[in-house]
Design a protein that fits this description.
This protein is mostly helical. The protein has two domains: 22-87, no CATH class; 106-228, no CATH class. Helices cover 68% and strands 0% of the residues.
Length: 230
């Protein structure tokens, strides 16, 4: 498998966008280690970059990468912590205002669409990293409980209902929050309406899991309304 290591640029540190040999990877890790005390407010970005670089090394060279990282001066426990988060946080999800605690909470989610929702909710409600983690954990526990209940007591559904469910899922998955600026207000307004209708259908189903999902989307609808000043 052709792996790639993407290291977003820090001052004077070039980006790497190709497969690395071990010596090249080790040199990148040494450069990153040298940056640790020259961050000037970029600590969280640095943690994600180092986490991705270490994860790359682990996947290719396993114990060899761990040994080299500790020889350079990194604490292995710290690298495990950073890489466990960085593996699940894509650069497209990064925001300057998010803390590493925020990213650790977001890493628990299954996909970037869910992460975008909770980033928006964090902004709207000014959640701390601890509160964001609690909200995500609560949602996951509720979903797990509802799924177990559905598996134990399945509800018969007609063919029409299944078709409607598929439409809702498609609509919700396609309703990704764009940047909330007035420049794309028209697009956001259209998105808001689609989101609102799909969430209303979820709520109308009446089961606990659907209502919980609908609540999240209604919160996002409110956030989008605020963003475009509707």
């Amino acid at each position: 498998m052709n792996k790639q290591l993407s290291v977003p640029s820090l001052p004077t540190l070039p980006a790497v966008e190709r497969e690395l040999q071990f010596d090249e990877w080790a040199a990148t890790m040494r450069d990153l280690f040298a940056f640790e005390n020259k961050l000037e407010g970029a600590r969280v970005k640095y943690q994600l970059i180092v986490g991705r670089a270490f994860a790359y090394g682990q996947e290719r060279w396993k114990r060899g990468a761990e040994h080299e990282a500790t020889r350079i001066g990194f604490a292995l426990g710290t690298l495990y912590n950073w890489s466990s988060v960085a593996r699940r946080i894509s650069p497209s999800i990064e925001r300057d205002y998010l803390t590493f605690e925020d990213y650790r909470a977001l890493a628990k989610l299954e996909n970037d669409a869910e992460r975008e929702k909770y980033i928006l909710l964090k902004q709207v409600h000014s959640w701390s990293g601890k509160r964001l983690d609690a909200e995500i954990s609560k949602s996951r526990q509720l979903n797990a409980t509802s799924e177990r209940a559905a598996a134990t007591h399945p509800t018969p559904q007609s063919a029409d209902r299944n078709e409607s469910d598929a439409d809702d899922v498609l609509e919700l998955e396609s309703a990704q929050p764009a940047s909330p600026t007035r420049a794309n207000a028209s697009k956001l307004f259209s998105l808001l309406k689609e989101w609102e209708h799909a969430a209303a259908r979820l709520q109308a189903r009446g089961d606990e899991m659907s209502r919980a999902q609908a609540d999240v989307y209604f919160d996002c609808v409110d956030a989008l309304r605020d963003s475009i000043g509707e």
